[in-house]
Amino acid sequence: MKRLITLSVNGDVYEVAVAGHQRLIDVIRDVIGLTGTKEGCGEGECGACTVIMDGRPVNSCLILAAQGDGAEIVTIEGLMVDGGMSLIQRMFVEKGAIQCGFCSPGMILTAQALLDENPEPTEEAIREAVSGNLCRCTGYDKIVDAVLATALAMRGEPALAGATGSGEA
Asked: pTM to 2 decimals?
């Protein structure tokens, strides 16, 4: 038996019929057609499927679609500004925090949620925030640099190269 729910994804409203067992990631990818959200482990361990739901990062592979009924959901596509990359997306590129790119959507959304809550995070706060997102390519230093640079740019301050001491490779 299916249930009709209303999802607000990236500011657009979708009415979809979902089965009780259907996950949010499956509705976002297969029904709505937003494929930026990636499924890694399907068990909530890697963070690749992270979306922002009502201001908080969540693993969409662990959320039933029905739990999203009435929630405000943001996917990586929702961060775009005027058809281009948002500030945090640009900083991830500029700081070399995107390598294979598989973890990037979830990592960026987790970092964006942190910055929305705390626009002046410490390196420690950033590392704690992204600790649920696995990246096998960067070693995390460049990710931390990108988030720190985004925070500085949001305040109108120049970004420091290699803020965590990792330098530019």
From this structure: 0.92
Distance CA 150, CA 92 (A): 9
Q: Which CATH class is domain 87-154?
A: mainly alpha
Residue 84 pairs in a beta bridge with 81
| Per-residue pLDDT reduced to its tens digit, 58-104 | 999 999 999 999 999 999 999 999 999 999 999 999 999 999 999 99
The rounded distance, in Å, linking the Cα atoms of 2 and 16 is 9
Torsion, Cα 27 31 36 41, to 10 degrees, reads 40
Give the span between the Cα atoms of 144 and 159, in whole angstroms.
Answer: 12
Helix (H) or strand (E) holding 15: strand 12-19
pLDDT in tens, 141-163: 999 999 999 999 999 987 665 55
Residue 75 — left, alpha, or beta (φ > 0 → left; ψ -120 to 50 → alpha)?
beta
Determine the residue type at 45.
Answer: E
Q: In CATH terms, is domain 2-79 a member of 3.40.50.1240?
A: no
Nearest Cα to Cα of residue 122 among 143, 147, 140: 147
